[in-house]
Design a protein that fits this description.
15% of the residues lie in helices and 43% in strands. The chain is of the alpha+beta class and 138 residues long. It starts with a helix and ends with a strand.
């Protein structure tokens, strides 16, 4: 019986390792924390760079559909496209945030968001588009 438990644990560990291996050559972006600022929801996204490239700039445009049917697009960025560089090194994590001086606020509370979808993703490394695939789960 003990041997069966060991094999079961090993299979679970291998399954987790296989999932990490599949993501090892890409960039995974998932939903981060949401905060309220002056009555507006401010979303964020968390980036895990599992590629071999250093990402110079990453932007994800997320379309938020509100419960009343209105849609708003929020640009979440790793930093300013022109200005202080905030590269995301291989194996590093980063947070994509809304830059309030460049974009309009959502105009709604976080509880008013019914759904989210990705409209556009921009990934640049070394002055070119990123070679690694970027997957986003907003």
């Amino acid at each position: 019986m003990r041997r069966v438990k060991t094999v079961g644990v090993s299979l679970v560990a291998l399954a987790g390792f296989a999932g990490a291996t599949l993501a090892a050559n890409g960039v995974a972006v998932t939903r981060g924390n949401e905060t309220m600022l002056y009555g507006n929801c401010v979303p964020s996204l968390v980036v895990v760079n599992q590629s071999a490239q250093t990402i110079d700039f990453l932007q994800v445009d997320v379309v938020m559909t509100l419960r009343d049917g209105q849609e708003r697009t929020i640009e979440l960025r790793s930093g300013y496209r022109e200005g202080i560089a905030r590269p995301i090194a291989p194996g590093a994590n980063a947070t994509l945030r809304q830059q309030h001086d460049l974009s309009m606020p959502l105009g709604a509370a976080c509880s008013a968001i019914a759904s989210r979808r990705v409209a556009r993703t921009i990934c640049e490394a070394g002055g070119r588009d990123c070679a690694a695939a970027v997957t986003v789960q907003p």
